[in-house]
Amino acid sequence: MTTQRERDREQAIEELEKLEALIVEQSTAGTLRPLTIQARVRSIAALLVEEPAMKARACPFCGSTSRSLCSDYNHMRAWVECIRCSARGPILCEGPEQEVKRKATEAWNRRVVEY
Question: pLDDT tens, 80-93?
Fold first, then answer.
């Protein structure tokens, strides 16, 4: 049985091969798009970089530790939501899935006033 890490690595290798083909194709056609390539490289890097999961703090409104890290169907937007009172953190939608989820957790953990 393969682990999630091994599956991510295999997926990253496949994506790198596709990216290589894309670069060759666009170079030959004279339509090389650096921003497209940069975005693909970042998503591949996210598969290879192993970051420890960040833990969301308790809800600032009700104090509940029952929170959910939510995302839309294609995992391009993410937010943290309190299960007890339904408070939501900011909805973030930039970058690869893991990066968006990390940023959503960071935004939830950020407090305007720290006591």
Answer: 998 889 899 888 87
